[in-house]
Automatic annotation (TrEMBL):
InterPro entries: ADYC. Pfam families: ADYC. This is ADYC domain-containing protein. Keywords: Signal.
Amino acid sequence: MTKVSALKSVSRFLPACLSVWFLVACDVPSPGEATPAPVLVTQDFADGTDGSHSQGKQLHGTPHGSVAFSDASILRSGERRGVTLELDRGELVADLALHVEGTTPSLVGCASPNETGPDRSCGLTVLGQGTCTPGARFTLSSGALCQTRPPGSCQGAPVMRVCSGERPCEDQDANHLVTGAPICASSTCPSANVQCPASGVYTVLAGPYTPGTPWSLTLGASRGEFPATHQELRGDRLVGLMMRSASGLPMLEVTAAINAQDVVIQESPGTWDPSGYTYLYRVKSLGAQPLGNICNSNPNPNGGDALVVPVRGLYDNLGERTESSTAFTLACEYAVIAKCYRWGYKPWLDGVQAGKTTEAHWACTRMARADYCGAGQYYTEDGTPIRLWDGMKPPINAAPANPIPQQSMSFEAGWTTDGAVCLSHWRWKNLDANTCTNLHWPKYDANGNVINDCQATGGAEGCSAICDNADDAERLYGAKVFNESASNGPNAGMP
């Protein structure tokens, strides 16, 4: 694994046969700006690739794939504080309630009315706290406009002091950022130009110029939020986040967070997810065996410490998916939940409610494990090449051209969330007769013709669901995704 620290990029040495179409969301906004709806662009395979994808045996890739939204915490100023997690597209977001840390002499009443001005150490109060993007500059202002009356939303010539973080400060303290001042001679309302601190949080103290006199001050921020009661933590600010496995134990800790558009892979278009809306995380388990990276069953011996992607919904050991408002899925990048996400079936593309893309993702997980029966049992090996496409309109993955180059692949099956709903003639002949119970085994006459094909019998009970192309699979059996594969010989049992 190669790291380029300046770009936070991670190279992945995956088989060159992996190639995929991606759904790209353009125009990623800067933090704090309004987030537009993603613009979806289907990208073609890179020249020279064979258009294949690789199957895998693992669903989650870890026994800790289900994680609770609640009972999470983050380390802040040496204190571990509770946060609530949520998913924003393909990114974890932690919501931290702000509070005032400690006190300072300036928050105590003044002994004498002669102690005036913004630099005094008494007679101030916490006006509020704000959030901002670290390093960004913004203006805190009462809205006063010069040469107008009234001079703005303040009374009593108030003073203002801005402190870094959640701790109130004195004028000479290390966390003192700036002291407010009127923006022009005609105004008595203070304003300040502030550079956002590394914490992304600031605390504003204010009070009357002369202690004991009436005053008021209403502030607004040109960027970020003021006043704010919560801070939204994203990206590498989640390093150190502790989460609870949905089963209760162990606790999991985020040790790295990388935007998936900076993770380099060898398949087109060259990055894990170019949309900018997906983050990958390195996560370790705590207080239970085995310790360390939760993705410790990587079938690629040179894969290094694998990353995880957060995915909406939960998958049980049988491959059944359910929506959940209390937990979400963490999938190791070599497991099929992550593979199908990376191949373009991102559940968040449906919006708030699960829809066709979520359904296609679920069906894809069946296909990517060759889970014919839809019972959680795989019939493939890691790295087995297939070519996939779907019947969505427009498609996320379009039907492959043949050959690109010729891979000796044939149409295999149509898939839904229940597994394979129909199989091709050649695939039936190359599977163990005991593979599935929900797909009735073909019956042959003396000439080798199937006599109980559902298409010929009108769907009679006990007929065999056979489809030799995607049109039949979709029209007759409601298939959502399709694939081609190569035979490994009669009764091989493996695609």
